[in-house]
């Protein structure tokens, strides 16, 4: 039923690694717990701060910005917009105008503010219906130099206007770059949806939780390494968010590669330790190749010649590399602990081959394999159709 193990260096090495991990799973688990907690703690103590430096060396626009900084440094700093809106009446109503003036006075008094325009000075800063007005704020430094503290001070100036019933919103360069990323439920909703889909697929609680668990462990490790790296090079503040999206995606994906193959082996009656070895030599090898390809491709961002883009590439490649390492080391150790509990209850009879019911995906894969031209043409038509909007990109 199972072919001979391929005699290649990589798969043989991964097979031996899988067998060793199965025999020493407690040691591997302890090592991973120490590594994750150690790196997370070290990052909190010694990790660097994010630096949002969007300079692009060698292009004309950057040369213009550099020239502006040299000749007119007061105009080279970050900017922001303060927008005022009222639902009833106009911004020129006495009480409203007084509240707006109070906020503008506080904005002008901030330490790093060079100038702020008067939102009520003329028609160019007031909407035709009189319900909305805006003020432009000029700071004396870049967003990286000003930092989050300056943005918080700017937000606090909204209090006088808001107390008078005026809606105050902030936009422009400083708020856009420095505002905190969403801490909302989006990621949690995504993880809960993944849990539901995994449970429907595997019909076993352990098999459902395991891919998410190893993905989160790998993500915590990878992001901690990125945090430590930020002490050596400039890492943009968006890097952790990008790493989270990529890390969860590839982490769950690679774990499913390994988990699905291992479950298939067990369902056919293979010994747990032997299955872990063979799974590491087959699915694990696929993970190493896939992850290595992704890492090399992402590192190619270095050739764009844009420092902050290259830094994003470094960050993402670290997270992907850790996800690969987790899939071929931590996950096999967990599989060794779980034994047959990753199977549905009716398939857990040890030592007996269990009849495996193929899903609809198997039938679909067979159809594709038997109709390569139809599949290729159909896929090409779909991809070209989806790519049509790219013609309008500017």
Can you put this structure into words, describing what you see?
The chain is an alpha+beta fold and 394 residues long. It folds into two domains: 9-53 and 184-354, Multidrug efflux transporter AcrB transmembrane fold (Up-down Bundle); 73-178, 2-Layer Sandwich (Alpha-Beta Plaits). The protein is 63% helix and 6% strand. It has 14 helices and four strands. A four-stranded antiparallel β-sheet has the order 2-3-1-4. Helix 2 (25-46) runs parallel beside helix 9 (205-229) and helix 9 (205-229) runs antiparallel to helix 12 (307-338). The longest helix has 32 residues, at 307-338. The relative contact order is 0.13. Residues 1-7 have low confidence and may be disordered.
**Helix-strand sequence:** HHHEHEEHHEHHHHHHHH
The protein's oligomeric status is single chain
- The CATH architecture assignment of the largest domain turns out to be Up-down Bundle
CATH topology of the largest domain: Multidrug efflux transporter AcrB transmembrane fold
Major beta sheet summary: 4 strands, antiparallel
Query: Can you count the helices?
Result: 14
Shape estimate: elongated
How much of the sequence lies in strands comes to 5-15%
